[in-house]
Design goal:
This protein has 457 residues and is mainly α. Helix content is 85%, strand content 0%. It has one domain. It is built from 17 helices and no strands. Helix 14 packs across helix 15. The protein starts with a helix and ends with a helix.
Length: 457
């Protein structure tokens, strides 16, 4: 047991240190972007375009991979079934290629969905034109996000956590380097929507700069997978039992992600794209994600394979011990961080972002969004950890219904609060929804584990 605990501690430290540097370089990326672009209509267009590959990937494939791959790979690798791992991987790669091509073709529609309610004081057609150009270039990331996710899942199933925690640093460094050249290719400072439309060099710098970072990250993960001794072969077989298992589990996972994207569409449009509020909310979420990624994600990442093994071995006592230990650690780590963010939101944002084209009004706006979001940090982190408990049982159906409930709450609260409190209201809506849903998810999982134990007995 001491050896197992020390191994888990080392894994947590590996993930936490890599995640810390990843989040810090991610923060440096938004600082540089704020200095170069500011909180403008272009910043909102870039945010929507840069979010597009995440939306498409998560909606059409990411939910499947995130919810199912680690438990599936853990099970197959435990029995030495490399053929099943190859079959799943081959299917996922083909699906990624098809989805990426379709997404690029549909770029104008994808951008439009997230900008249905543009600010009244901007040129809506120009906003759409610039955003669509950037969206097409950034959607190339979908394929490479998927490759990264596959490699990550295999390595996590093998209890190898280093590469997945550290390769995002490379992506951030590449993106930061590209942003430093923006002023050299732009004729105005800060760059504008019309400049993006007319200046091909600026288009490629903003679009491919970020995309190149994701490509570098994927290459790093492929090298790590190869060095781990994993040898995959091409085995595209839709009738393979492992692929059927993946598809069987994936339906509810896709529904889960779809619910998230519906809520995201509503929130982005409530923020009046082009007003700068989309950028404020996005930057605030980056600050919010820093303690979540550093503290909560490292805990969840290292606990999930252990939870999956406990379920595979039908060991409820071990599952409960691991699960509730993870919940306690997550709460202890995130509650103090939540308080710090809520109390010191404006000084933190001012210290890190208020330079160049990012002025005092942008700081105030971003800080208001951060205050609202920070209240829900513990609820958000615990919620995601609890859902991993369901996935460890091979249950993607229950998380779907819980997630629909959470997103409905988020939308309702946002509609009620946004007119009076603008971005603060959007942040508060997020927090209230996750605090409530984390409690609901915990109660439902507890009932489920008791029911499973009773049936097994």
């Amino acid at each position: 047991m001491p050896t197992a605990r020390s191994g888990l501690l080392r894994a947590n430290l590996t993930v936490a240190s890599g995640t810390a540097l990843s989040r810090l370089t991610g923060l440096a990326r938004i600082i540089v972007f704020g200095i170069v672009v500011g909180q403008t209509a272009l910043a909102d267009a870039y945010d929507i375009a840069n979010n597009a590959p995440n939306v498409v990937y998560e909606l059409l494939l990411g939910g499947i991979l995130t919810a199912t791959l680690v438990p599936l790979f853990t099970r197959h690798l435990q029995t030495g079934d490399d053929d099943s791992v190859s079959a799943i991987t081959s299917f996922a790669v083909v699906a990624l290629g098809v989805i990426t091509a379709l997404a690029i073709a549909l770029a104008p529609l994808i951008f439009k969905v997230f900008s249905l309610n543009p600010a009244s004081d901007i040129d809506a057609d120009l906003f759409s034109q610039a955003g669509t150009i950037l969206t097409r270039l950034l959607l190339l990331q979908v394929f490479f996000y998927g490759v990264t996710s596959i490699c990550t899942s295999i390595l996590h199933a093998r209890k190898k956590f280093f590469a997945a925690a550290w390769t995002p640093v490379l992506a951030n460094i590449v993106t930061i380097a590209s942003l430093l050249f923006v002023n050299r290719v732009s004729s105005v400072d800060p760059p504008t929507l019309s400049e993006v439309v007319d200046n091909t060099s600026l288009q490629w710098l903003l679009g491919m700069g970020s995309t190149s970072g994701i490509i570098v990250m994927a290459v790093g993960m492929l090298l790590a997978l190869r060095n781990s001794g994993t040898r995959l072969k091409w085995n595209f077989d839709l009738s393979h039992s492992a692929v059927k298992d993946l598809l069987k589990l994936s339906g509810w996972a896709v529904g889960y992600i779809a619910a998230n994207q519906v809520a995201l569409v509503v929130i982005k449009n409530l923020a009046n794209p082009g007003s700068g509020d989309v950028d404020a909310y996005s930057k605030a979420y980056t600050f919010f994600s820093l303690p979540h990624g550093l503290l909560a994600v490292s805990i969840a990442t290292t606990f999930v394979p252990e939870l999956a093994r406990a379920v595979a071995q039908n060991n409820k006592q071990e599952f409960d011990r691991r699960f509730y230990s993870g919940i306690r650690l997550t709460a202890l780590a995130t509650i103090p961080a939540s308080l710090v963010l809520a109390i010191f939101a404006k000084p933190i944002v001012a210290l890190l972002l208020q330079y160049g084209n990012f002025d005092e009004s942008a700081t105030t706006n971003t800080a208001r969004a951060l205050v609202g979001l920070s209240i829900g940090l513990s609820g958000f982190s615990i919620y995601l950890f609890v859902l991993r408990g369901f996935y460890s049982h091979g249950d993607t159906r229950t998380p779907f219904f819980i997630n629909v409930f959470e997103n409905v709450l988020n939308i309702v609260f946002a509609i009620l609060l946004v007119n009076k409190y603008d971005v603060l209201g959007l942040g508060l809506a997020f927090s209230f929804a996750y605090l409530t849903s984390s409690a609901v998810a915990l109660v439902v999982l507890r009932r489920k584990t008791f029911a499973v134990a009773a049936n097994a007995g």
